[in-house]
Amino acid sequence: MDANETYQLVKDHYGAYAKRYDTELSLEHSQKVAQAFGYTLDELASIPDGANLGASCGNPLATAKLEKGEVAIDLGSGAGFDVFLAANKVGPDGRAIGVDMSKGMLELARKNMEKSKALNVSFVEASITSIPLPSAIADCITSNCVINLVPDIDKPMVFHEMFRLLKPGGRVAVSDIVAKCELPADIKRNMALYVGCIAGASNVGDYERYLKEAGFEGGSFLKPAVWPKLTQHR
Fold first, then answer.
1. Residue 84: closest CA among 140, 55, 45
2. Does 187 fall in a domain?
3. Where residue 159 falls among pLDDT bands split at 50, 70, 90?
4. 112 lies in which domain range?
5. Could you report the per-residue pLDDT of 171-193, keeping only the tens digit for each?
6. I need a labelling partner for 89 at 20 to 30 A (CA). Which of 1, 32, 60, 96 fits?
7. For residue 25, what pLDDT is reported?
8. Methyltransferase domain: from which residue to which, for each copy (predicted)?
9. Cα–Cα distance, 52 to 82 (Å, whole number)
């Protein structure tokens, strides 16, 4: 499967995932996933119910250290979960921008934006390898369980886009699935595991190389999170 086919597979899967929200995905399940990664009940109560689809693999906002008045961009923003939380943190003088290539997810995110009545939130339809936003616009860029879904050949482009979008001295906070060793070929070819955020996982060395080649300095890898044992999954 080539890169274009992979992108289409991911679009189709997550577009369908967004449409299943009202019928198959429970708020209780989504909240349990988020709480397992350190999101608080107060934070979860502050955003529209439809924003949290339980699709996180960590909590990038815990290390983003967002401040009032900042501009935050979330790559692969889905239904807007981390975007709405970031909007609360940066306040009315700041901005929170979500970027996603799935029309279904963006439709749900914009419905959530109407519910929230947030004036400092916006969403952009784009691949996270090529984002139609000005350079040096963001103070912080986040991403939550998304970069693994980008084909390996294009992953370096994501980090170059991050670097381009950040203001001098800006920062990134990424939660993602990372492989401890080289994945077997049969796993890499398994498309169910790919859209499930497993088969496309890079190893730590690749991540370090992507960051360095894009121009980043001072990065660190924090303690891995453990996925909660729940009865539902993607």
1. 45
2. no
3. very high
4. 3-176
5. 999 999 988 888 889 998 888 89
6. 32
7. 60
8. 67-215
9. 9
Query: Contact at 8 Å (CB) between 187 and 198?
Result: yes
Q: How many domains does the chain have?
A: 1
Q: Do the domain assignments include residue 186?
A: no
CATH number, domain containing residue 46: 3.40.50.150
In-domain check, residue 52? yes
Which pLDDT belongs to residue 230? Answer: 40
Work out the mean pLDDT of the chain and round it to a whole number: 90
